[in-house]
């Protein structure tokens, strides 16, 4: 009996999951989607661009660093609940016993403040807010080296529109909506605001993160529309 074997011609399309950028929502929304051209591969936070084979395609989501800081602070304060549960590290426990809000922490990121050293400790200890975009992409030079593999970049500030454009690029005809409940979005119930002083402190602290966002914004139209 003659058996016909069809070669799998789908290309690997990897989702790099940067913490607190909407990745959990993207994963839960697209996890069961079967694509004609691509095989979707979803990764945990620990996987970065250098772990992805050259030649494979990649997509990811970015977010304003200060918004990401606030989301990360409150997510870890509640230990990742309700979607997940991850106990505090010893360093996180010390940090949350010192700072009860994102404003308290950010306002202390001034060397003239009494708790400046504690604030630096917290910024380097709390999961999500201690990670850098560069952890996933190394450098501008390395990103440019892998530019041909960049498939799409979503911006959390423009999430729904960017997601719909991603679906078009994936040739998905049916309507698919991102999750809107708190668990799907893995979002905060906290209504928070930051003082002008805190914003200044955070922009200084996250100057390299802002550089990454500026770098990506210069390339995003080319990547998303190619």
Order of the strands making up the biggest sheet:
2-1-3-4
Oligomer: single chain
CATH class: Alpha Beta
| Fourth-level CATH superfamily | P-loop containing nucleotide triphosphate hydrolases
What low-confidence regions span 5 or more consecutive residues with pLDDT below 50?
A: 1-6, 182-186
Shape: globular
Strand content: 5-15%
Distance between the termini: 45 Å
Rounded Rg: 19 Å
CATH architecture: 3-Layer(aba) Sandwich
Q: Given the helix and strand composition, which structural class is it?
A: alpha/beta
The CATH topology label is: Rossmann fold
Largest sheet, if any? 4 strands, parallel
Please give the domain count. 1
Along the chain, the helix and strand elements come as: EHEEHHHHHHEHHHHH
Brief synopsis:
This protein is an alpha/beta fold and 226 residues long. The chain is built from twelve helices and four strands.
What this model shows, in words?
The protein has 226 residues and is an alpha/beta fold. The protein has one domain (11-225): Rossmann fold (3-Layer(aba) Sandwich), CATH 3.40.50. It has helices at 23-30, 65-77, 90-98, 102-107, 116-123, 133-137, 140-145, 159-169, 182-185, 196-205, 207-217, 220-225, and strands spanning 11-16, 38-42, 57-62, 150-155. Strands 2-1-3-4 form a four-stranded parallel β-sheet.
């Amino acid at each position: 009996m003659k058996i016909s074997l069809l070669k799998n011609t789908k290309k690997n399309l990897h989702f790099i999951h940067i913490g607190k950028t909407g990745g959990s929502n993207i994963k839960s929304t697209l996890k069961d989607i079967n694509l004609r051209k691509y095989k979707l591969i979803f990764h945990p936070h620990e996987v970065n661009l250098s772990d992805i084979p050259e030649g494979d395609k990649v997509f990811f989501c970015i977010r304003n660093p200060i918004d990401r800081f606030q989301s990360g602070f409150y997510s870890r304060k509640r230990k990742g609940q309700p979607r997940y549960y991850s106990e505090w590290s010893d360093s996180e426990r010390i940090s949350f016993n010192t700072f009860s809000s994102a404003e308290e922490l950010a306002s202390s990121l001034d060397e003239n403040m009494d708790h400046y050293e504690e604030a630096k400790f917290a910024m380097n200890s709390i999961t999500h807010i201690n990670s850098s975009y560069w952890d996933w992409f190394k450098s501008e030079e390395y990103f440019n080296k892998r530019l041909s593999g960049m498939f799409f970049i979503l911006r959390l500030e423009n999430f729904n529109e960017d997601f719909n454009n991603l679906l078009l690029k994936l040739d998905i005809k049916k309507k698919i909506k991102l999750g809107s409940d708190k668990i799907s979005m893995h979002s905060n119930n906290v209504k928070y605001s930051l003082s002008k002083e805190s914003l200044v402190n955070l922009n200084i602290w996250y100057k390299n993160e802002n550089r990454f966002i500026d770098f990506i914004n210069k390339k995003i139209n080319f990547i998303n529309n190619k």
